[in-house]
Amino acid sequence: MYTLGIETFLAVVRAQSLSGAAEALHLAQTTVSQRLKVLEQELDLVLVERGKGIKQIRLTPSGEAFFTLAEQWSFIWKQAKLLQAQGPSLSLGVGAVDSINTFVLPSVYRALNNHPNPPLLKIHTSHSADLYEEIERRQVDIAFVLREHVHPNVTVEKCFSSPMVLLRLASPTSQRKSPVHPEELNPKHELFMPWGGHDYISWHEYWWNPFNPSRTKLDSSNLLVSLLQDPEQWAIVPKIVAAAVSQRGNYSIDYLTNPPPNYICFKLTHKNPTRLTQNSLEIFNQYFQALIH
Description:
This protein is of the alpha/beta class. The protein has 3 domains: 3-86, Arc Repressor Mutant, subunit A (Orthogonal Bundle); 91-158 and 265-292, 3-Layer(aba) Sandwich (D-Maltodextrin-Binding Protein, domain 2), CATH 3.40.190; 164-261, D-Maltodextrin-Binding Protein, domain 2 (3-Layer(aba) Sandwich), CATH 3.40.190. 43% of the residues lie in helices and 17% in strands. Helix 8 links the parallel strand 6 (191-192) and strand 7 (216-217). Helix 1 (3-15) packs across helix 2 and helix 1 (3-15) packs across helix 3.
């Protein structure tokens, strides 16, 4: 593959003009045009529309599709050059759903950064289904999800279970009893998140009319800290999340009578990790096991 052509193509797209790319690459515009032409000939594709009066470049449909591949190629090429210069080094790609990356894993990340020989960390937040695919394609080395699936080349291991609890701002003026029955909670004041999928939704709909939904629905657990500002507001969250939130302010944590199913986390790894990845995973698991036990 014509690496100079790919880098030139990326520069043209980012600058949106041949002249801008030439300036960014410190090349003559004729050199930029020639490299782009050679790349198109090698691919047997037209990547950029050409014509009189066109000052700002426009990509053809093939050019739009190739842009994503070009970015991936550029990243891989730079990683290969880094490997050539520095030799193999420890690295670890960690993927997790939002709640785990926000409230569970930060202490593990801090511990890893203080390790005598810390791996280079790549931290990624995604949905459970997507993380299975990313482990399969080795885009991440370890992932934490809320759903268990059978997937080729992916090892799935239940790593912890956390009861669901009631999280509210602490109220200095009223005495609250614990545990709390779900019928005592006004759904108009709920900050709702669909923890764990269908089982949690079924439990929630049993206690509160699904046709009279919560006023506020969240798709990011990090928003809880920002939005939980009134003592009347409440949220049902995993205890492990509530413990992390309570470190950021004055919150109360109460158990529920008739609670929902536990929040269960599954750990994903590739069935055939490389030796360097296995070394990084051993360091990671050392700190992760200390967290959950």
